[in-house]
């Protein structure tokens, strides 16, 4: 495992001007003399805040963009990775966080796209599906290679992406947040697969914001900050506060602020609501000034519950009372006007319009407040957007910057800005910190606390138990489409206690 498989030395990437030329005399660089290495059979974890340079460094390794300075060696020989194809031919596979697949093709065609087996110049479908089935089976997943990819859940699409990468007989896998859409059981199977790949001598570069994963899969952890190498430490026995200090350049002593104080005034009451037809009914409450957490496995019904409350999913039975009024049958538009906000777990498809500007996105849920004489007041719109950018510390050139060009953390702040501009009384948050770095997470925790301190109610779904425990006043546990526990005492809000309720009696989700 000590034999170097990959060595990247003094990698530098400059900022480019409007004419496409590198600004070499600037003190600010995207990457500034970064070095990184990978051994055979090693999982080397790469961490850093959004914008630290992780993606740029890996894009250079994947042949997507060239370095301006520095060298890359594979198995001791200097190489030039001038394109993604050349990197792939050298045995480097990049598994992106955003899936790079075709939803209108079946699984087998996605895996072997452009490399389909032929017989006599004609596609050999029998061999294609046999090869795909064998590859998926070797990974421990019995996915039908003939099913259309678009019909698969996101978790299984991720597995197809991994199978596609391995079909190239890769020596190096770059895995960017591969567990973001997987359930606990699927994560365990992925980690088991990674250990198998390690035993074959495959090196894995693993990018993740989840500290609990670093101990499970990592051998070493390297930290980038502001485009520079900060240091590399062993993953065994590392302290979270040490890594946070390296990532953000400061300690985060109070990760989960709790200045808010719940009142006795019930803002939301869900009574005998039934999600899947066969599941027991569920009931819950959210008070003003309270943060209520919902825990459970992927597929347990957490997202479906929030969408039902928000009117985006049909209510089968039960009653929902918001702000003293029964809201059965209300649609999202009416609920937004009544002061309810829903932050989806998928910010890029349900939370933002990435082709539009920050200004347009921030005011999207509050346009009804900006009309004057039947037209939108552009002056008020710009003022509202600038105020939100300043308050939420969104890093951007201007409010006219396209949201799709922002980092993940700044996109998430933009979603918060959109709903805060609508002046809500109740926030429904679905995985509010998914895919963002620890510094951005800390800011979002502070925003949630400030929102609750103003007397608003927050109902928050999260797969990260530390943040759920740290932020919540009460926690409901979901399993198989219903609530199975309510934890009200701080002593009961432990990871072990929550997992005991999640896993007891049923291991398979129903939604």
Mind explaining what this structure looks like?
- Helix 13 (378-391) crosses helix 14.
- With 511 residues, this protein is of the alpha/beta class.
- 32% of the residues lie in helices and 24% in strands.
- Strands 6-9-10-3-11-12 form a 6-stranded mixed β-sheet, sandwiched between helices.
- Mean pLDDT is 87; it is low at 505-510.
- It has 3 domains: 1-88 and 205-251, P-loop containing nucleotide triphosphate hydrolases (Rossmann fold, 3-Layer(aba) Sandwich), CATH 3.40.50.300; 254-339 and 426-511, P-loop containing nucleotide triphosphate hydrolases (Rossmann fold), CATH 3.40.50; 352-423, no CATH class.
- Strand 19 (371-372) and strand 20 form a beta hairpin.
Secondary structure elements and pairings:
Layout: E1 4-14, E2 29-39, E3 43-47, H1 54-61, E4 69-74, E5 77-79, H2 84-89, E6 92-95, H3 107-111, E7 118-119, E8 122-123, H4 125-138, H5 154-166, E9 172-176, H6 184-199, E10 203-207, H7 211-217, E11 220-225, E12 228-234, H8 240-248, E13 266-273, E14 282-287, E15 291-295, H9 302-309, E16 319-322, E17 325-326, H10 332-337, E18 340-343, H11 347-351, H12 358-362, E19 371-372, E20 375-376, H13 378-391, H14 408-421, E21 426-430, H15 438-453, E22 457-461, H16 465-471, E23 474-479, E24 482-487, H17 495-503
Helix pairs in contact: 13-14
């Amino acid at each position: 495992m000590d034999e170097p498989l990959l060595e990247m030395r003094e990698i530098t990437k400059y900022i480019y001007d409007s004419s496409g030329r590198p600004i070499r005399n600037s003190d600010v660089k995207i990457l500034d003399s970064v070095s990184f290495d990978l051994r055979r059979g090693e999982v080397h974890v790469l961490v850093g805040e959004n914008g630290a340079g992780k993606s740029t460094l890996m894009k250079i390794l994947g042949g997507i963009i060239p370095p301006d300075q520095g060298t890359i060696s594979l198995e001791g020989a200097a190489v030039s990775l001038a394109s993604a194809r050349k990197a792939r031919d050298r045995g480097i596979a990049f598994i992106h966080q955003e899936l790079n697949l075709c939803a209108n093709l079946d699984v087998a065609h996605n895996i072997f796209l452009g490399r389909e087996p032929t017989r006599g110049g004609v596609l050999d479908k029998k061999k294609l599906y046999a090869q795909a089935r064998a590859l998926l089976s070797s990974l421990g997943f019995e996915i039908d290679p003939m099913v259309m990819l678009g019909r698969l859940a996101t978790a299984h699409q991720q597995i197809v992406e991994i199978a596609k990468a391995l079909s190239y007989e890769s020596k190096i896998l770059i895995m960017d947040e591969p567990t973001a859409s997987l359930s606990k059981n699927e994560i365990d199977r992925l980690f088991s697969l990674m250990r198998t790949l390690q035993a074959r001598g495959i090196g894995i570069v693993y990018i993740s914001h989840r500290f609990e994963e670093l101990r499970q899969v990592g051998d070493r952890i390297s930290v980038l900050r502001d485009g520079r190498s900060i240091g590399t430490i062993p993953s065994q026995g590392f302290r979270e506060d040490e890594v946070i200090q390296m990532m953000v350049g400061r300690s985060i002593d109070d990760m989960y602020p709790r200045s808010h104080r719940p009142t006795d005034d019930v803002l939301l009451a869900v009574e005998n609501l039934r999600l899947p037809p066969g599941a027991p009914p569920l009931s819950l409450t959210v008070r003003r000034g309270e943060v209520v957490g919902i825990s459970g496995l992927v597929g347990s019904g957490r997202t479906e519950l929030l969408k039902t409350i928000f009117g985006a999913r049909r209510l089968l039975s039960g009653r929902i009372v918001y702000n003293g009024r029964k809201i059965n049958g209300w649609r999202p538009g009416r609920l937004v006007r009544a002061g309810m906000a829903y932050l989806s777990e998928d910010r890029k498809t349900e939370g933002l319009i990435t082709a539009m500007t920050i200004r347009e996105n921030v005011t999207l849920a509050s346009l009804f407040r900006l009309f004057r004489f039947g037209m939108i007041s552009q002056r008020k719109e710009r003022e509202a957007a600038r105020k939100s950018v300043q308050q939420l510390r969104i890093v951007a050139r201007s409010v006219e910057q396209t949201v799709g060009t922002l980092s993940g953390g700044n996109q998430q702040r933009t979603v918060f800005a959109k709903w805060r501009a609508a002046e809500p009384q109740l926030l429904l948050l679905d995985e509010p910190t998914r895919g963002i770095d620890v510094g951005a997470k800390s800011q979002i925790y502070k925003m949630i606390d400030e929102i609750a301190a103003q007397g608003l109610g927050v109902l928050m779904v999260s797969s990260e138990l530390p943040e759920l425990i740290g932020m919540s006043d009460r926690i409901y546990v979901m399993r198989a489409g219903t609530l199975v526990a309510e934890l009200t005492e701080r002593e009961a809000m432990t990871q072990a206690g929550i997992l005991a309720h999640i896993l007891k009696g049923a291991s398979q989700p129903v939604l």
